[in-house]
């Protein structure tokens, strides 16, 4: 509760900051201060530089001359670049006289879509209509940059803003441990109710005997006599429930919460998760899932930015069939082209004209912005280079640097391309009021008027710009994935380039093709009109735009291709190997091309050389003449036979790739085929396909799903999540396209990568690099699971043996609900006497030390499938609790057959009885924990011995004073008197020892097979046999333009 | 008892050496502190229980427990205890008529005489208990039916007792002192003991009534309402419990210091028993300074003023004479338990030794091929 309270308080503070800050609103020509929560739709709001927008605004007026303003949406989608937004075109400068009506669509969460229309009423004129698009809309949460002041009219406020609509409350994720707890709780609830029922029944049986119900010495009050019998029975039942309610460990929930809350700090504190490059460590968004990290059976990983670095570097390009390789590139890269045939052409050059055209295309066809700090000199003093541009420095080597130039773009590919062009002498200077400036090889500045940007989108997988050069030519430059460019260019040009593209692709580079087209005046006029029309459309704007785009982007001529390298993440292969060794199945879900993804999988050693690949893609489906469905059916059956039926029976978790128990299978499927498998709705066998598919996948060591749409990624995760045995799934990704699968999986991990913070914000845990996953799962996950599992079992145990004597006592006190322990002991037991040792244990225990866990991934399998919280172990703890409870009660019971226990003949009463039982209890459960503790830090020593000392101290203190606020001084000197009796000492020692005896025996008998004996050897062997990792920096991947976020064929 | 290895992990900065230098730049870094606690590298003692380490412990426990057990058992057996049931259920019992004709309203006390013979002489101090059976002093309604503030001499509680005392809170409109069911049911049989010597004369045995209650109860927890030495004045305005014959300040006519709430019989009774069969200390027969036994073997007569009815709830009353040892009254349980546990430990020690031995050889032979 405390952590939630703390989080709530923080939230409340944040709420007030957001809801109550002052904004300036124009009303009747005056400027009024208003609290931000009071803004109404239609208010004209003034926002100054570096302020965030209080609601969604339509930009009316900007202090900049070119009617633009810059915003950063870092807090919305994590993109830290400056985005340009435009005022509504042709609008009066005097806002006071502006009289207009805005029509816009219903609020919807898509940040990048907005459709609206503005009717401007001018006096005695027909209202002018202006179309409004996302470029006119300033989103709540975004920050105004590089612009002194803007005015905008509020269109969506409060919960209707896009930011609020996007903030869907994450569905509560519950861990498997919590489900176990609830199951156990149900058992204990049954025990509780049955105890109460037994006692109530026996009470009335007992009372029916003569003279027992109301002997002369113990008469009932008048009220009790008057009460209805059945009502009395009911209240008796309830009293028993109250008496025994401690068996339900309410305090466990508090302790579990504390453990999770505090325990998550160890993840954030872990310096191994700290990445010096981004100066950040791990981030824990949900502390509820710590232990789930130890239970993962399936890992779904994104490829780009996760397995690979998403740190693009321009490697080479191909212009008109000739290869250009940047010679100053670091030597390791050169190694690659040695064996390549076409390298010999390196010296040959394409015509200078073509070359320059290609480079101009690279310089123009993008949406990159030059970081303004250098151009405008506004914030020259902070020489911080934007993080997007980490590699900027070496670009300056080639071209004499005038200044440090920073590029900002939403996609790192674009930056890489622009920088690549810079290496060859063409520098993009920036975009100023629709004019793009390029510094060419001769150090001349070329100006191009930017007419249209045909934005990138995942379906087209390409983007274009239409520019007008100084000489008046209208040019269209287009770049995109080979598959989307080749059909749109003249076929005779394709072959020369295709060879390069394919070679680059197999080398693992991301390839893009560049094409251009000269638009004639008519063509341009037509395109221009089409684009304007489409942009103005209120309905189906997207479709209309798409049609126009497709019309324009035809008949182009191909000028070249680029190859950009995306390196593997550090230690990606080792991490994947460790995960597989831990018995975790790794699935790669990517939007990328199959070839690229496959080479990544090989590079990460997810597929080995001897892995037999089962392919289920559009290509394999189109093999024969038969229809896709038939072929799909055939292939599924064939693979199923291969992978499932013929495979040797799977020994749970023992078979592993390198243990070479048999043939390894890798499975490859693409998005289109997947949707056929999953959505084959009309036919009855769709669920059968799904089952076949699932079974095949589960028998493969790794699965690669390429060409996935974000939603399909989530679909896959969901399918596995809901399959038999409901395995625990983990998704890891870095981009916005991974959010759906991160949210869907049991545990979502975000990589603090370059594609914004969306994944991080939606994840449960965020780490800077993929390699951190290994420690997160193998060490932290393992330890947290063992800790919390032990915590849970221990709590049930200690409350069972706490309450069982009290239950047994009812048989000796006429079922009268007489508590055995004093009220103070009852309440303090869980709060003070026994809570701290287990909390310390659950935070600090390392039954196997972290290094060993990291070295032996197989140890992870020992706790797989909730091993410590199965019914078997639960039964063991319950039996132990019952045994202890019986021992405590009857041990003292036999002692009290003669209550004269002091050497002066004086007798002990019922409170002494309870105190002796309680003392034995506190010592036994604490020492039991001490026996279980494998890792004694000073904190453990302190809390364990401190708790016992505190118990003794408290008992003296509580019994040593006549408390004025108490009606009954039950324990007055009871504890001290107890200690003055030798018999009491002896029985306490005896019972503690006897209780722990079976435990010690078990430990002794179990130990020879336990992990410790084996550990030492395994450490040595694993150190010796550790394969030296092949360089994971080897670029084996390619990625084509589209990739991220989108699939679609 | 445990094989232990101190595993003090050194602070290693090697892993992050490079990064820590880089991080200490202009930006205030969020780099986690490299402290042993935060990195979960606190030096730790990692005990490992093995057969070899536990083995000696078992032998030690066995060797300690068995002598203690024997000592306990012997001293328990040396305790002399004599019990006599004087309830008067049986028609042949001397107290039969008293039990049968019991009436709350009778003014003349019914006295019965129970003769008995001690076969052994009781040497040291003898403690005289009364025992009750099937008397639920630990019944919840009963246990809470008291007011400790009143018993501690609190004046406001004296005149306004706790609600818990119902239905023994007031009588005839006056508050009851002491209130509650426990006080109301104070055991009020009077037991006297006579030694019948060889020539038939009965000599009363002096019974000490001091020191039967816990010292702290007598001197701190229980106090008479203050301010007045005259207890009848101090208790003015209160009524005696309904079942009592005398008010609280006349509980012990023989000793004015033993009256009111600090009457030791009363205090002993107020300490509610743990089980429905219990005994409470009644009197102490001090050992005479000379060498004669406290209670020589021979004939005795127990005189009972029978005031306390137990037959209505099928209860029993006993008189118990017992000597006391360092471990308290006679109770063979502890001795037997200690001997048993000690033997089990010893036995387990032997078994473990065998297992350990066998395992070790197996382990060694398995190691050789490696």
Automatic annotation (TrEMBL), chain A:
**PROSITE patterns xrefs:** ATPASE_E1_E2
Q: Binding positions for Mg(2+)?
A: 302, 304, 734, 738
Record's catalysed reaction(s): a 1,2-diacyl-sn-glycero-3-phosphoethanolamine(out) + ATP + H2O = a 1,2-diacyl-sn-glycero-3-phosphoethanolamine(in) + ADP + phosphate + H(+); ATP + H2O + phospholipidSide 1 = ADP + phosphate + phospholipidSide 2; a 1,2-diacyl-sn-glycero-3-phospho-L-serine(out) + ATP + H2O = a 1,2-diacyl-sn-glycero-3-phospho-L-serine(in) + ADP + phosphate + H(+)
Give its E.C. classification number: 7.6.2.1
Compartments, record wording: Cell membrane; Early endosome; Endoplasmic reticulum membrane; Membrane
- Coiled coil regions, renumbered to chain: none
| Superkingdom of the organism of origin | Eukaryota
Q: Where is the active site?
A: 302
Domain named P-type ATPase C-terminal: residues: 760-1007
- Asked whether the UniProt record includes Transport among its keywords, one would answer yes
Originating species: Larimichthys crocea
Q: Which GO terms describe its cellular component?
A: early endosome; endoplasmic reticulum membrane; plasma membrane; recycling endosome
User: Which keywords appear in this protein's UniProt record, sorted alphabetically?
Assistant: ATP-binding, Cell membrane, Endoplasmic reticulum, Endosome, Lipid transport, Magnesium, Membrane, Metal-binding, Nucleotide-binding, Phosphoprotein, Translocase, Transmembrane, Transmembrane helix, Transport
Question: Which NCBIfam families does the annotation name?
Answer: ATPase-Plipid (TIGR01652), ATPase_P-type (TIGR01494)
Transmembrane intervals: 183-206, 237-256, 824-844, 874-896, 911-930, 942-963, 983-1005
Lineage at the top is: Eukaryota, Metazoa, Chordata, Craniata, Vertebrata
Single GO molecular function: ATPase-coupled intramembrane lipid transporter activity
Membrane topology qualifier: Multi-pass membrane protein
Q: What is this protein called?
A: Phospholipid-transporting ATPase
Q: What Pfam families does the annotation carry? A: Cation_ATPase (PF13246), E1-E2_ATPase (PF00122), PhoLip_ATPase_C (PF16212)
Residues reported to bind ATP: 302-304, 414, 456, 479, 510, 590-592, 707, 713, 737-738
Where is this chain primarily localised? Answer: membrane
P-type ATPase A domain span: 19-162
Q: Which cofactor does it need?
A: Mg(2+)
* GO biological process terms held by the UniProt record: phospholipid translocation
The family classification in the record reads:
Belongs to the cation transport ATPase (P-type) (TC 3.A.3) family. Type IV subfamily.
UniProtKB/TrEMBL annotation, chain B:
InterPro entries from the entry?
A: CDC50/LEM3_fam
Keyword entries, A-Z: Cell membrane, Cytoplasmic vesicle, Disulfide bond, Glycoprotein, Golgi apparatus, Lipid transport, Membrane, Transmembrane, Transmembrane helix, Transport
Residue ranges of region Disordered? 1-29, 146-166
- Compositionally biased intervals (Low complexity): 16-26
Q: Where is the composition biased (Polar residues)?
A: 150-162
Sequence intervals crossing the membrane:
48-74, 333-355
**Protein name from the UniProt record:** Cell cycle control protein
* Source organism of the structure: Larimichthys crocea
């Amino acid at each position: 509760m405390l952590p939630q309270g703390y989080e709530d308080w923080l939230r409340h503070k944040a709420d007030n900051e957001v809801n109550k800050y002052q904004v300036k609103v124009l009303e009747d020509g005056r400027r009024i201060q208003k609290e931000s929560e009071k803004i109404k739709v239609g208010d004209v709001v003034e926002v100054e530089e570096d302020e965030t927008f209080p609601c969604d605004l339509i930009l009316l007026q900007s202090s900049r001359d070119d009617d633009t303003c810059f915003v950063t949406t870092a807090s919305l989608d994590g993109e830290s670049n400056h985005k340009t937004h435009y005022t509504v075109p042709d609008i009066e400068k005097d806002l006071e006289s502006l009289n207009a009506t805005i029509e816009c669509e219903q609020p919807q969460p898509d940040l990048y879509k907005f459709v609206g229309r503005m009717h401007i009423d001018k006096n005695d004129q027909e209202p002018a209509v202006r179309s409004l698009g996302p470029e006119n809309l300033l989103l709540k949460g975004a920050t105004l940059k590089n612009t002194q002041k803007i005015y905008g009219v509020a269109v969506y406020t409060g919960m209707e803003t896009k930011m609020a609509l996007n903030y869907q409350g994450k569905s509560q994720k519950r861990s498997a441990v919590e489900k176990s707890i609830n199951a156990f709780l149900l058992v204990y609830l049954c025990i509780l109710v049955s105890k109460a029922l037994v006692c109530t029944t026996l009470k009335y049986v007992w009372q029916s005997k003569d003279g027992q119900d109301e002997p002369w010495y113990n008469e009932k009050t008048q009220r009790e006599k008057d009460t209805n019998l059945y009502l009395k029975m009911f209240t008796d039942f309830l009293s028993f429930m109250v008496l025994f309610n401690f068996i339900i460990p309410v305090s466990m929930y508090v302790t579990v919460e504390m453990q999770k809350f505090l325990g998550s700090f160890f993840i954030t504190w872990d310096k191994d998760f700290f990445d010096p490059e981004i100066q950040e460590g791990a981030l824990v968004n949900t502390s509820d899932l710590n232990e789930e990290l130890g239970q993962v059976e399936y890992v779904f990983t994104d490829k780009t930015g996760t397995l690979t670095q998403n740190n693009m570097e321009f490697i080479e390009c191909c212009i008109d069939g000739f290869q250009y390789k940047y010679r100053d590139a670091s030597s390791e890269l050169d190694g690659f082209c040695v064996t390549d045939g076409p390298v010999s052409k390196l010296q040959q050059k394409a015509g200078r004209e073509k070359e320059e055209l290609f480079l101009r295309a690279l310089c123009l066809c993008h949406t990159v912005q030059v970081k303004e700090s250098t151009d405008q000199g506004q914030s020259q003093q902070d020489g911080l280079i934007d993080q997007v541009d980490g590699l900027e420095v070496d670009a300056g080597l080639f071209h004499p640097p005038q200044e440090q130039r920073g590029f900002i773009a939403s996609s790192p590919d674009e930056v890489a391309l622009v920088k690549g062009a810079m290496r060859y002498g063409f520098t993009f200077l920036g975009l100023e009021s629709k004019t793009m400036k390029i510094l060419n090889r001769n150090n001349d500045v070329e100006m191009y008027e930017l007419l249209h940007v045909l934005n990138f989108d995942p379906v087209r997988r390409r983007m274009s710009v239409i520019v007008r050069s100084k000489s008046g030519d209208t040019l269209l430059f287009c770049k995109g994935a080979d598959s989307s460019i080749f059909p749109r260019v003249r076929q005779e040009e394709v072959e020369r380039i295709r060879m390069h593209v394919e070679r680059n692709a197999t080398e693992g580079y991301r390839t893009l093709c560049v094409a251009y087209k000269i638009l004639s005046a008519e063509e341009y006029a037509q395109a221009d009109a089409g684009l304007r029309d489409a942009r103005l459309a209120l309905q189906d704007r997207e479709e209309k735009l798409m049609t126009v785009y497709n019309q324009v982007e035809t008949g182009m001529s191909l000028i070249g291709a680029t190859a950009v390298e995306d390196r593997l993440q550090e230690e990606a292969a080792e991490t994947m190997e460790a995960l597989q060794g831990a018995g975790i199945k790794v699935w790669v879900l990517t939007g990328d091309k199959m070839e690229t993804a496959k080479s990544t999988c090989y590079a990460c050693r997810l597929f080995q050389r001897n892995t037999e690949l089962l392919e289920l893609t559009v290509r394999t489906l189109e093999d024969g003449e038969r229809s896709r469905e038939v072929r799909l059916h055939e292939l599924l059956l064939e693979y199923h036979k291969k992978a499932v039926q013929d495979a040797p029976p799977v020994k749970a978790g023992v078979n592993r790739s390198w243990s070479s128990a048999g043939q390894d299978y890798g499975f490859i499927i693409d998005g289109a085929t997947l949707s056929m498998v999953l959505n084959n709705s009309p036919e009855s066998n769709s669920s059968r396909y799904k089952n076949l598919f699932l079974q095949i996948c589960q028998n493969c060591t790794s699965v690669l799903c390429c060409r996935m749409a974000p939603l399909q990624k989530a679909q896959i995760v969901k399918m596995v999540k809901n399959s038999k045995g409901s395995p625990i799934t983990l998704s890891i990704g870095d981009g916005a396209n991974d959010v759906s699968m991160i949210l869907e999986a049991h545990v979502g991990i975000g990589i603090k990568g370059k594609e914004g913070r969306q994944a991080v914000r939606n994840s449960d845990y965020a780490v800077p690099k993929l390699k951190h996953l290994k420690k997160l799962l193998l060490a932290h996950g393992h330890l947290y699971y063992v800790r919390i599992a032990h915590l849970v079992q221990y709590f049930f145990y200690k409350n069972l043996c706490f309450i069982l004597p009290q239950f047994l006592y009812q048989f000796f006190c006429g079922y009268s609900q007489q508590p055995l322990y004093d009220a103070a002991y009852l309440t303090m037991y869980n709060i003070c006497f026994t809570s701290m040792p287990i909390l310390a244990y659950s935070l600090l225990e390392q039954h196997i030390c972290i290094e060993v866990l990291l070295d032996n991934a197989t140890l992870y399998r020992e706790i797989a499938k909730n091993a410590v919280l199965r019914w078997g172990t639960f039964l063991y703890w319950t039996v132990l609790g019952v045994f202890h409870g019986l021992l405590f009660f009857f041990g003292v019971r036999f002692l009290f057959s003669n209550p004269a226990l002091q050497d002066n003949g004086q007798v002990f009463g019922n409170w002494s009885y309870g105190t002796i039982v309680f003392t034995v209890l506190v010592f036994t459960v604490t020492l039991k924990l001490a026996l279980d503790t494998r890792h004694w830090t000073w904190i453990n020593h302190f809390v364990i011995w401190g708790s016992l000392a505190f118990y003794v101290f408290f008992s003296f203190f509580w019994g040593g004073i006549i408390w004025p606020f108490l009606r009954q001084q039950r324990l007055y000197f009871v504890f001290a008197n107890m200690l003055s009796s030798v018999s009491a000492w002896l029985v306490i020692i005896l019972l503690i020892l006897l209780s722990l005896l079976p435990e010690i025996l078990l430990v002794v008998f179990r130990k020879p097979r336990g992990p410790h004996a084996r550990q030492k050897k395994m450490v040595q062997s694993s150190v010796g046999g550790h394969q030296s990792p092949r360089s994971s920096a080897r670029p084996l991947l390619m990625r084509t333009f589209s990739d991220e976020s989108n699939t679609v064929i | 008892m445990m094989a232990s290895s101190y595993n003090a992990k050194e602070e290693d900065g090697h892993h992050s050496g490079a990064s820590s230098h880089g991080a200490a730049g202009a930006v205030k870094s969020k780099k986690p502190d490299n402290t042993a606690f935060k990195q979960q590298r606190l030096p730790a003692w990692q005990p490992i229980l093995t057969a070899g380490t536990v083995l000696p412990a078992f032998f030690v426990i066995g060797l300690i427990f068995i002598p203690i057990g024997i000592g306990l058992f012997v001293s328990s057996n040396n305790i002399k205890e004599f019990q006599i049931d004087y309830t008067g259920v049986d028609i042949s019992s001397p107290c039969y008529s008293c039990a049968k004709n019991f009436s709350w309203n009778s003014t003349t006390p019914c006295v019965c005489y129970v003769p008995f013979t001690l076969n052994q002489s009781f040497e040291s101090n003898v403690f005289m208990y009364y025992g009750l059976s099937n008397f639920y002093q630990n019944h919840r309604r009963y246990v809470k039916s008291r007011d400790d503030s009143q018993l501690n001499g609190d004046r406001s509680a004296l005149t306004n007792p706790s609600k818990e005392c119902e239905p023994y809170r007031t009588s005839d409109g006056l508050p009851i002192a002491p209130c509650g069911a426990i006080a109301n049911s104070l055991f009020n049989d009077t037991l006297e003991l006579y030694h019948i010597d060889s020539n038939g004369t009965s000599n009363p045995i002096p019974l000490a009534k001091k020191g039967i209650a816990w010292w702290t109860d007598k001197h701190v927890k229980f106090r008479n309402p203050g301010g007045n030495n005259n207890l009848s004045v101090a208790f003015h305005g209160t009524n005696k419990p309904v079942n009592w014959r005398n008010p609280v300040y006349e509980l012990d006519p023989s000793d004015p210091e033993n009256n009111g709430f600090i009457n030791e019989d009363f205090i002993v009774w107020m300490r509610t028993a743990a089980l429905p069969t219990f005994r409470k200390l009644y009197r102490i027969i001090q050992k005479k300074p000379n060498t004669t036994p406290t209670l020589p073997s021979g004939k005795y007569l127990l005189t009972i003023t029978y005031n306390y009815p137990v037959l209505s709830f099928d209860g029993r009353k006993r008189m118990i004479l017992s000597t006391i040892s360092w471990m308290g009254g006679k109770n063979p349980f502890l001795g037997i338990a200690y001997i048993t546990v000690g033997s089990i430990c010893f036995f387990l020690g032997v078994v473990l030794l065998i297992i350990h031995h066998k395992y070790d050889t197996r382990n060694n032979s398995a190691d050789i091929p490696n």
